[in-house]
Amino acid sequence: MNIKKFQDPKLIKKIVEKLKRNKRQISLMEVCGSHTMAIGKWGIRDLLPDNIKLISGPGCPVCVTPMSIIDSVIDLKDVTIAIFGDLMRVPGERGSLELARAKGLDVRIVYSPLDALKLAQEKETVFVGIGFETTIPGIAYTIKEAYKNNITNYSVLTSLKVVPPALELLASADDINLNGFILPGHVSVVTGSNAYNFLPEKYNIGGVVTGFEPADILVSVDRLIQQVENNDAKIENEYSRIVTPEGNKHTQEIMKEVLEIDDGIWRGIGEIPKSELKIRKKYSDYDAAKKYNINIEYKEDKSGCRCGDVLKGNIIPPECHLFGKSCTPSNPIGPCMVSSEGSCAAYYKYERKQ
Ligand code: SF4
Predict the structure, then answer these.
(1) Per-residue model confidence (pLDDT) at position 259
(2) Which residue's CA is the nearest one to ligand 1's atom 6?
């Protein structure tokens, strides 16, 4: 696949000229941290006319991981804590894991869930398994492997979120006026584009599963505008070079075997019904929440951080009074400034002038 054709300046100019002919006010939301970064990196907002707004939604898994997970992990004793690197500097109520590591907590960064399972060969290991559908199958697989091989000193503290219920929350909200969703590319590889059919059917709002190159994003914006103009809300798949309607059955089966749906707590947002995958009873020996009696609860962020409003599309990051002042990537107050997929980090890196 020659990705360069999706970066072709002539093609991009042609789509932008077409988009400029649209005179309607349009608000579209992307719900994938990689899209947030791509929009910033390619300067997509600068290319679009003022009447087309791109708003970032809850697309960053680190940003929606409950604060109580960080606080609970800090309290764990005599175990190795395995985490993805993005989580290291996310503030909990009592500081970050980076700070706890400086005080002696054994925190290790892993690049794949299987690395966490390997750490269990040395010492009792708790993997802080966070993510959306893209990451969840790999985490579920380690639990299955640990069970199969009777590895008893491995467990996972989960915050495994599924995207469609968060979209449903946004689509049903009275205070968010959206004309469509730029749907996640990576997540949809697993779920398939059919997972979003409820959006037009139930809420008369459309979406386009989208790739990560500039032409991908602009084509999706154009398709969503056409849906609005024709009053024809539907789910389209711009990223059909990777995503199928049904998704990846194999990874779906691994998830189904190990995990089951439950209500989930999203940092900055609250509880979203049926939005989280929890470890099934059969595998409960690998559930760190049960093993260490950890209670995951919602905690209000008292720092003044407005990540919740950013994640719900109520404000854009520069509208937070801490943005770029007391909150910067080197001194993050909230998770949206820490994560490589966070909206505040993306705005800080690419769009600070605004
Ligand atoms: S700029 Fe910082 S404090 Fe403000 S919402 Fe973003 S992460 Fe939170």
Answers:
(1) 98
(2) 344
Q: Ligand 1: residues within 6 Å at CB?
A: 305-307, 310, 317, 320, 322-323, 327, 333-334, 336-337, 344
Pocket test for ligand 1, best of 306, 309, 343 (most atoms within 8 A of CB): 306
* Protein residue whose Cα sits closest to atom 1 of ligand 1: 323
The CATH number linked to 86 is 3.40.50.11740
The total domain count for the chain is 1
Q: Model confidence at 353, in pLDDT bands (50, 70, 90)?
A: low
Does residue 216 fall inside a structural domain?
A: no
Tokens (6 digits) for 346: 């993306």
Distance 244 CA to ligand 1 centre (A): 36
Mutate which of 67, 310, 328 for ligand 1? The one with the most ligand atoms within 8 Å of its CB, which is 310
Span 169-215, pLDDT tens digits: 999 988 778 999 999 999 999 999 999 999 999 999 999 999 999 99
- Cα dist from 210 to 154, 184, 193, 235, 306, whole Å: 36, 6, 10, 11, 27
Residue 11 lies in a domain: no
Q: What is the pLDDT of residues 143-163, one digit of tens each?
A: 999 999 999 999 999 999 999
Average pLDDT, the chain: 95
**Per-residue pLDDT at 341:** 86
The CA distance from 134 to 243, in Å, is: 12
Query: pLDDT band at residue 351, thresholds of 50, 70 and 90?
Result: confident
- What is the domain range of residue 277? 62-163+250-291
Residue 279 lies in a domain: yes
Atom of ligand 1 nearest to the CA of 315: 5
pLDDT digits (tens, 9 = 90+) for 247-293: 999 999 999 999 999 999 999 999 999 999 999 999 999 999 999 99
